[in-house]
Amino acid sequence: GKSLGYGNFYVKDRNDPEGRSWVVILKPREAFKLLEELD
User: How many degrees, rounded to 5, is the angle at CA 15 between CA 22 and CA 32?
Assistant: First the structure.
């Protein structure tokens, strides 16, 4: 994912076969949890 600052994280949606979908998560801790789940 990419940190956009201000605690915003963009996380790649692996449900999208082309990888074009992105999910915006406002809380960094939630982003880290999601990244761990995706990994």
Answer: 55
